[in-house]
């Protein structure tokens, strides 16, 4: 039997397992595929393990719904911070969490002793094409043309510890997100696949976003994706350094700080329910 907690950050929902108090699952990839199934499992965008760390308050390991392991999840790490605080692992206003892209710092906002908002220092964006990684031209590839699915789209590529391909469009449609998204995710110019963001800019401080996530399909939100969007928006002159992203599951506040070159993301973290997995 495995105890778990279901949590979500603006609709980006994962199953969280406390590996401080119980053994780490023997095969987390298989567990993620089974437990994330929305018909035969708990349901979610994947599995996140909250583990001990020798360099931070906790370590986050994140598995997509298809069982693949990812380096980072912006909405997921906010929920990890809430889990660590609210479940008594480390009760303090600032936490450090070890991830696949290094140790990140998170500032917690609480109400009645429980975390409700988290501001994450997501670190510096990675803009070198070979490190994103992508074979599209440029460092970073900025509005690089890609012919896919009978369409020609311009992509600006950014890594926030995981790869993102951002395209700005006049209108976000199902044809783009559900039809073109999976083709871009697995395109040969992205050797480790990519997350794909479709963006409609409202003004310099506001954008609407839908995302096709690598390994999970369309999700209601993607925190690292929203961070990649503000970077791509600044690089292409479409957004200012502070903006609100309207995602299908809710809003995120983003800032690409010019002095530090770090991207900051602020948003909610919610615990939905606890349970026991018996399969």
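^ structure tokens above, recovered residues below v
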């Amino acid at each position: 039997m495995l105890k778990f907690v279901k949590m979500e950050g603006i609709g980006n929902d994962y199953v969280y397992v406390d590996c401080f108090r119980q053994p780490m699952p023997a095969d987390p990839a298989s567990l993620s595929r089974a437990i994330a199934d929305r018909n035969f499992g708990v349901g979610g965008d994947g599995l996140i393990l909250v583990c001990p760390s020798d360099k931070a308050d906790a370590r986050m390991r994140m598995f997509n719904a298809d069982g693949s392991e990812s380096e980072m999840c912006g909405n997921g790490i906010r929920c990890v911070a809430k889990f660590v605080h609210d479940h008594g692992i480390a009760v303090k206003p600032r936490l450090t969490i070890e991830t696949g892209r290094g140790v990140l710092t998170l500032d917690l906002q609480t109400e009645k002793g429980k975390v409700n908002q988290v501001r994450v220092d997501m670190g510096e964006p990675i803009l070198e094409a070979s490190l994103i990684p992508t074979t599209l031209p440029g460092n970073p590839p900025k509005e690089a043309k890609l012919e896919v699915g009978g369409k020609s789209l311009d992509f600006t590529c950014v890594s926030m510890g995981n790869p993102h391909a951002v395209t700005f469009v006049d209108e976000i449609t199902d044809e783009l997100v559900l039809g073109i998204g999976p083709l871009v995710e697995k395109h040969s110019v992205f050797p480790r696949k990519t997350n794909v963001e479709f963006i409609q800019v409202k003004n310099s401080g506001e954008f609407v976003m839908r995302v096709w996530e690598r390994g999970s399909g369309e999700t209601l939100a993607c925190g690292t994706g929203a961070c990649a969007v503000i970077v791509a928006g600044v690089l292409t002159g479409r957004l200012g350094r502070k903006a609100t992203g309207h995602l299908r599951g809710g809003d995120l506040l983003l800032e690409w700080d010019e002095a530090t070159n770090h991207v900051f993301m602020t948003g909610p973290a919610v615990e939905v329910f606890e349970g026991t997995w018996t399969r």
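The two ends are 7 Å apart (CA to CA).
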